[in-house]
What does this fold into?
Amino acid sequence: MKFYIKWFYGYKNFGDEVIFFWLLNYLQQKYNPDNFTIEVWDSARMQQWIQQNLKFLDNGILDKIDLVENVEISRRFRQFQSFLWIDKYKKFFKIFGGWEVLDESRKFPHDGWNFLILNNRCIQKWNFILVWWIGTDIYPKTKFLFKRLLPKAKEIICRESVSLDRAKKYWAHNVVLFEDFSKKIFEADTTTNKEKVLLINLSPKYNNEKNVEKINNFVKKYGNEYKKIYFPADINFDKQLFYSLRAIIPDIQVYDWTKHDLQDTINLFLSCTGGIGSRLHFLYPLKLFSKDFECIADSDKVKKIIINP
It folds into this structure.
């Protein structure tokens, strides 16, 4: 069996790249495939990320990994090939991220129909696994999509109970609940010294005057002796907001997690006093390590994992 993993790896999103290791370990333990072909945005950076963090990868996996660069031109061409069933990976077993493909808040066909259209033959052959998140099914077209799609999955792996219940409405077999996939990675080593450090994150969606004021108040609560560190969980979008925060928190520093190995970053969360932010996988380790934290996001996934698990 050969696996083809489609996800947003290599885009410098912290959550995706933490889950990366768990996903490979899970698939190795359960299916022991011959190969992992993985779509990535930057193959050189992902290769370096893997080498930096081999301790989080189970034995026997590294030699099976083949990275396929997913630049925009090749992605469009590969989608066209997939639609015509002529691409070189057509017989590979596909692993799809649920958050990427099943979200009816997005416009057609990106609410999930895009996935069905481009990968219809793969789906008809029951040749795929869905991982992570099953979105809402309020609209009739979404219900119809789920009836066509979910019963065809070899396995549906859900991260929380709401997705589990939604999936079981359409397919009761091979639907499993697995606590947030990054948990096993964050719990790999939990020994470090405590420091007077506050972590801060802000994503563009929640960049407004009200939330900036919440961040400022959170920082003031602790006083000047605390070190303030900005953590851009998604480098491509969050890092630019560091400069606007520096206008109200002059001594704030930025932590670029892409320049550190994963254990260094885990230690940062372990050693801090607390934090405030909006990204799920910024908030999740703060909650997991019982830190004082404040959430400034109200997205569906944050509510289910952080606020009301």
